[in-house]
Write a structure and sequence with these properties.
With about 240 residues, this protein is mainly beta. About 15% of the residues lie in helices and about 40% in strands. The protein is elongated.
Length: about 240
């Protein structure tokens, strides 16, 4: 629904449920294109203006004003971590997908999340969602390789108590997922990948991200005080 109430048909080009980003296309002439700002230049304390439809279309185009409370906030939502811009500009259900704008009228983020506490809203930075949108436009989907597990880092306490090695412990395995098909089990510990040691979740994610869905990657697994190599065919992860 455009400003003024005109309804037009939109086509879904692609969506990524993990990051809450989608691209839609409309065929309509003479639309005003918003200027995209560089979110890496956003600074704490600068003006932030949120635009959206809080509580539905009845309140469409609502503008709320605040400041950038923080940048590069690491927020965990579900099983995933996100880097967000934090703002105290009022964001409510229905604001998702709306613009977070700076004093120059440039979009610096896309409103996506709020907490139950007042004055705590979050937006996906432009430099995060624009590459996602571009891949959705070119490919229709986001390739995100993984092995289908819920994991946790082995702590010092776990090492002392159970004699575990430093690595990534598998908590849960998705049925019929890549790890399940490869024969991995809960409580297995990933200690290496392609003959390189893996000690943190961030290291594991960075290493997997270098491969594509369908690649076969060798993981070093610790189980019952023994290490062995398991080839795993990477699968597409979904939200």
């Amino acid at each position: 629904i455009l400003k003024g109430g005109k309804e037009v048909k939109a086509t879904l080009i692609g969506k990524d449920s993990i990051t809450d980003v989608a691209v839609i296309k409309i065929d309509e002439p003479d639309l005003t294109v918003a200027k995209i700002g560089d979110s890496d230049q956003v600074r704490q304390g600068e003006l932030a203006i949120a635009i959206g439809n809080p509580l539905g279309h009845t309140l469409a185009g609502t503008v709320t004003v605040g400041v950038v409370s923080a940048v590069d906030r690491e927020i965990t939502y579900g099983q995933h971590e996100f880097t967000m811009i934090q703002t105290d500009a009022a964001i409510n259900p229905g604001n998702s997908g709306g613009a977070l704008v700076n004093a120059q009228g440039e979009i610096i983020g896309m409103n996506t999340l709020k907490t139950y506490a007042e004055g705590l809203g979050f937006a996906i930075p432009t430099n995060v969602f624009i590459p996602i949108a571009q891949q959705l436009i070119s490919d229709g989907s986001i390739e995100r390789p993984g092995i289908g597990v819920i994991i946790t880092e082995v702590t010092d306490e776990m090492i002392e108590t159970y004699g575990f090695p430093k690595g990534i412990a598998i908590v849960q395995i998705a049925p019929s997922g890549a790890a399940d098909k490869a024969g991995l089990l809960p409580k297995d510990i990933i200690v290496g990948m392609e003959e390189k040691p893996v000690k943190t979740i961030d290291e594991l994610k960075e290493m997997i991200a270098k491969y594509k869905v369908g690649d076969i990657v060798k993981f070093t697994i610790w189980r019952n005080e023994k290490e062995f190599i398991v080839p795993i065919k990477l699968q597409q992860l979904y939200g």
